[in-house]
Amino acid sequence: MKKLKLDIVGLSYSQTQSGAYALVLGEVNGRRRLPIIIGAFEAQAIAIEIEKMTPSRPLTHDLFKSLAGSYSINIQEVIIYNLVDGIFFAKLICSDGKKSSEIDARTSDAIALAVRFDCPIYTYEFILATAGIVIEGNEFVFLENIEDPSEEKAVGTSINFSSLSEDELKTKLIDALADEAYEKAAKIRDELSRRKSS
After folding, report:
1. How would DSSP label each residue in 124-144?
2. pLDDT tens string 88-139
């Protein structure tokens, strides 16, 4: 299967889940976005490294990097390789220069390590087609998404937008995307999709 490269394009506080954050990955040279709900600790670990902040004591992911470096182990890439019942699965591709190994990891931990090892993040087409958000020019078209959001799950539907007209939903959708409120945008998209299919 062909791998598609992703970049981190956003990290924001979840509007629907207390203590959770939305990590948004973007397709390199593409218009699709992959929002993933992660925990506060993992969000902090990613943000600290992106902002190049130095904590007073090493965080867990920093400790892992130091330990790996002591034994000449490098993470070559991170792959978000599956999506089952709304849960993302990721793995680290590691090497000591002689042997390469795949290590299963939570997606948030894998990305926290990817930013520390400065390694690429990949996924596959079927994952972007299932849980991705497509951005086309000024119009935002959404693909099918997964329900029941929780840590490291695809953004789903929990807010009821059924009382709004289709035009109101489209306006709210554009506003949500302009504000980078990807969770809210995904929920509005789901409501629009539900109306088209009924």
Report:
1. EHHHHHHH-EEEETTEEEE--
2. 999 999 999 999 999 999 999 999 999 999 999 999 999 999 898 887 653 3
CA–CA dist 5, 23 (Å, integer):
16
Structural domains of the chain in order of their starting residue, each with its CATH number: 3-129 (3.10.690.10)
| Amino acid identity for residue 125 in this structure | E
CA 67 centroid distance within chain: 26
CA angle 64, 87, 22 (to 5 degrees): 70
Q: Are 83 and 89 within 8 A, CB to CB?
A: yes
Residue found by looking up tokens 């539900």 in the block? 194
Per the document, the length of the chain is: 198
User: Up-side HSE of residue 168: CA atoms within 13 Å toward CB?
Assistant: 6
Does this model's pTM top 0.85? My answer is: no
Give me the pLDDT at residue 16, please: 65
Measured distance CA(87)–CA(65) in Å, rounded: 26
Contact call for residues 77 and 143 (beta carbons, < 8 A): no
Percent of the chain exceeding pLDDT 90 equals 44
Q: What value, to the nearest 5°, has the Cα angle with vertex 27 and ends 35 and 47?
A: 55
Answer yes or no: are the C-beta atoms of 130 and 25 closer than 8 Å.
Answer: no
